[in-house]
Every structure is written in structure tokens, then in C-alpha cells.
Write a structure and sequence with these properties.
This protein is of the alpha+beta class and about 140 residues long. Helix content is about 20%, strand content about 40%. The chain has a single domain, classed as Immunoglobulin-like, CATH 2.60.40. It has three helices and nine strands, in the order αββααβββββββ. The protein has a six-stranded mixed beta sheet.
Length: about 140
């Protein structure tokens, strides 16, 4: 009985507040594709405090900029739910991926210990960047 209660509580909450985002450059379509994995409950909690969709929330929390500092608009967004995680897939048209910078403030308003991990693969180079509350734009290349 006690172990079932502990298991039920463990499913409802999780001790690690993180998101994982992959960023890939597709030269054949001149597109940057982002795939963000967040815990479904965390996303629901964030949306409970505002109006809008998961796509709008993520687009407001992310900033993608080119080498000159101009914002790159997100062209498409889709949502895939799988058990306790939600995948948010975004894409943007980019003429040149060199010098791309990103900021990722997803869920920072909810959790002081939130860590957002971004793994990019651009032009044959891979890079991992960590974001914590207060961080600004960071290079992806």
C-alpha cells in the first residue's frame, strides 16, 4: 500500500525540471528544425497561467536570431504527445545558419531550477548549450 502511494506521488511530480531541444540544419530546404521535449504536466502548468496554445507559449519563450541579430520567425509548429512528455516541433527558413543564436526560457517562470538543454547539429558541427534562468542568446554554431 505504501509503495503504491509512493509510486503514485512519484508519477505526479518529478525532481528534475528540464527540457531538451535538438536543432538541425537542413540545407536542401534551407530550414532549421527544432524539436523540444518537455514534461507534459509542466507544459500544462505553464499554459494554465496564460492564454494560448503550446506553440504560442514556446514561440514566446524561444528567440532564434541570425548572425546580424535579426529575429527569425517560426514558420511551422506541431505538437506530439507521448505518455508523460510532449514534443513541440518547430521550423524556420534560414538563408545561412552560420552565426545562429538562440535563447530558451521555456518554463523558467515556473521553476527556479529549470535547465534547458539545446543540442545543435549545423554544418557538420555538433554543440550542446545549457540555459538557466537569466541567460540570454547563445551561439549554436
Amino acid at each position: 500500500m505504501v509503495s503504491a502511494l509512493v509510486l503514485a506521488v512519484g508519477v505526479a511530480t518529478h525532481p528534475l525540471h528540464s527540457s531538451l531541444t535538438t536543432v538541425a540544419w537542413r540545407p536542401e530546404t534551407r530550414t532549421v528544425e527544432l524539436a523540444m521535449r518537455v514534461f507534459t504536466q509542466d507544459l500544462a502548468d505553464a499554459l494554465a497561467h496564460r492564454t494560448g496554445t503550446p506553440c504560442r507559449y514556446v514561440q514566446a519563450a524561444l528567440s532564434l536570431r541570425d548572425a546580424t541579430g535579426h529575429a527569425i520567425p517560426i514558420a511551422r509548429c506541431s505538437i506530439d504527445k507521448a505518455d508523460d512528455v510532449t514534443w513541440i516541433r518547430l521550423s524556420a527558413t534560414v538563408d545561412d545558419p552560420r552565426g545562429l543564436r538562440l535563447s530558451n526560457a521555456v518554463l523558467f517562470e515556473l521553476f527556479a531550477d529549470q535547465i534547458n538543454i539545446v543540442q545543435s547539429s549545423i554544418g557538420g558541427r555538433s554543440r550542446t548549450v545549457l540555459f538557466t534562468r537569466g541567460d540570454g542568446l547563445k551561439p549554436l554554431t
